[in-house]
């Protein structure tokens, strides 16, 4: 109930006063507020300028106390060191650093800002293995937020294993 | 950007019945007008039920949802608007919000600090705690009302000399142990 009321308010605010480059289609969302598609434009001046992306939000009943599931969907998944080719995003505010004061809008802006700070289009180093082994729900992945690099936990353990064997990664 | 915001403000200036004014008094969690409002030490406003639920969600890492400052149940201040208490009593499910803290105003009638008054106020005491040092400290207490030491030659004198040496050795061993440990 609290979740629906808050989502209603967020939707209204996004439709009435959308930030630049973020569009949400209220008709498509309709009655089922627990799943949204948000259209996001690559920021002008960044290497994603002119590209269009789509983010899918899934809200649990404990939203906003728990973070939504956020993934890139659709034909264009941005090529970025923190975005896996299945659309999963490694971004700390989506799990550990979530706060109920964040919103769909602030998450979208954070994702756009994450994209904008990137200098080189590159998949995460562990993309192939992650995409094969991961859960459908990105919140089930145990991410290691590690400065510039982003690892899911299995990759991290294999990295640690390699370095303990004397292999420099 | 600025012009867009300005024109938006211009439209908002006409009174709209259901939108709250500027969102200044909206809870940062439910985005509704805060009810049972509390404010954190960092100045952020919440409904008490909303904030309580958030604190319950992350019991080990309690941070302000807005600025991530440390926050706790004891350190939020309830806001009491005029006449707001008799509107409803919503303290049925969540624990009641913490009470405000009221401290007495300070009165400076006496000279502050040194109250040598009739209440027998001031006590100083000096002391060094660890055992071997109290040995030295006790030698500094002059004329403190203890009985005089027994005169030389009596068996009590010899006994006290012996005890004194024993304690001295204990102290020396203790210091030695402290040094090598």
Automatic annotation (TrEMBL), chain A:
EC number, UniProt record: 2.3.2.23, 2.3.2.25
Tagged with keyword Transferase: yes
UniProt xrefs under PROSITE patterns: UBC_2
SUPFAM superfamilies listed in its UniProt record: UBC-like (SSF54495)
Source taxon at top rank: Eukaryota
Pfam hit, one: UQ_con
Keywords: Transferase, Ubl conjugation pathway
GO MF annotation terms: ubiquitin conjugating enzyme activity
Catalysed reaction, written as an equation: S-ubiquitinyl-[E1 ubiquitin-activating enzyme]-L-cysteine + [acceptor protein]-N-terminal-amino acid = [E1 ubiquitin-activating enzyme]-L-cysteine + N-terminal-ubiquitinyl-[acceptor protein]; S-ubiquitinyl-[E1 ubiquitin-activating enzyme]-L-cysteine + [E2 ubiquitin-conjugating enzyme]-L-cysteine = [E1 ubiquitin-activating enzyme]-L-cysteine + S-ubiquitinyl-[E2 ubiquitin-conjugating enzyme]-L-cysteine
Coiled-coil annotated residue ranges, if any: none
CDD domains: UBCc_UBE2W
GO annotation, biological process: protein ubiquitination
UBC core domain span: 2-158
Keyword field contains Cytoplasm: no
Protein name according to UniProt: N-terminal E2 ubiquitin-conjugating enzyme
Species whose genome carries this gene: Paralvinella palmiformis
TrEMBL record, chain B:
Domain named RING-type: residues: 27-68
Pfam families named in the record: zf-RING_2 (PF13639)
Record keyword Metal-binding present: yes
SUPFAM superfamilies cross-referenced by the UniProt entry: RING/U-box
A biological-process GO annotation: ubiquitin-dependent protein catabolic process
Keywords: Membrane, Metal-binding, Transferase, Transmembrane, Transmembrane helix, Ubl conjugation pathway, Zinc, Zinc-finger
Any single Gene Ontology cellular-component annotation: endoplasmic reticulum
Molecular function per GO: ubiquitin protein ligase activity; zinc ion binding
Reaction equation(s) it catalyzes: S-ubiquitinyl-[E2 ubiquitin-conjugating enzyme]-L-cysteine + [acceptor protein]-L-lysine = [E2 ubiquitin-conjugating enzyme]-L-cysteine + N(6)-ubiquitinyl-[acceptor protein]-L-lysine
Taxonomy, superkingdom: Eukaryota
Subcellular location per the Swiss-Prot or TrEMBL entry: Endomembrane system
Catalytic activity, EC: 2.3.2.27
Protein name, entry field: RING-type E3 ubiquitin transferase
Organism: Paralvinella palmiformis
């Amino acid at each position: 109930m609290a979740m629906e009321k808050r989502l209603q308010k967020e939707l209204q605010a996004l439709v009435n006063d959308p930030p630049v480059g973020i569009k949400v289609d209220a008709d498509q969302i309709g009655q089922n507020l627990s799943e949204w598609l948000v259209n996001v434009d690559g920021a002008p001046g960044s290497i994603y300028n002119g590209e269009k992306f789509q983010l899918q939000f899934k809200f649990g009943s404990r939203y906003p106390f728990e973070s939504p599931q956020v993934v890139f969907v659709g034909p264009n998944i941005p090529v970025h060191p923190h975005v896996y080719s299945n659309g999963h995003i490694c971004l700390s505010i989506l799990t550990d650093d979530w706060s109920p004061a964040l919103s769909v809008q602030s998450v979208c802006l954070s994702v756009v800002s994450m994209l904008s700070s990137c200098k080189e289009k590159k998949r995460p180093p562990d993309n192939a293995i992650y995409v094969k082994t991961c859960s459908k729900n990105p919140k089930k992945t145990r991410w290691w937020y590690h400065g510039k690099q982003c690892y899911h936990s299995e990759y991290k353990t294999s990295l640690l294993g390699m370095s303990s064997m004397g292999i420099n990664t | 950007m600025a012009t867009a915001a300005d024109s938006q403000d211009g439209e908002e200036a006409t009174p709209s019945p259901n939108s709250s004014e500027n969102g200044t008094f909206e809870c940062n969690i439910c985005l509704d007008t805060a009810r049972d409002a509390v404010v954190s030490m960092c100045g952020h406003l919440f409904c008490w039920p909303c904030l309580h639920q958030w604190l319950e969600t992350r019991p080990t890492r309690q941070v302000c949802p807005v600025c991530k400052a440390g926050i706790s149940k004891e350190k939020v201040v309830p806001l009491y608007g005029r006449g707001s208490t008799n509107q409803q009593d919503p303290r049925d499910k969540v624990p009641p919000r913490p009470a405000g803290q009221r401290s007495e105003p300070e009165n400076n009638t006496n000279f502050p600090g040194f109250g040598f008054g009739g209440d027998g106020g001031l006590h100083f005491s000096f002391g060094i705690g660890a055992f071997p040092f109290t040995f030295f400290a006790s030698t500094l207490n002059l004329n403190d009302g203890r009985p005089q030491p027994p005169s030389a030659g009596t068996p009590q004198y010899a006994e006290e000399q012996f005890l004194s040496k024993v304690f001295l050795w204990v102290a020396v061993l203790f210091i030695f142990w402290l040094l090598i440990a």
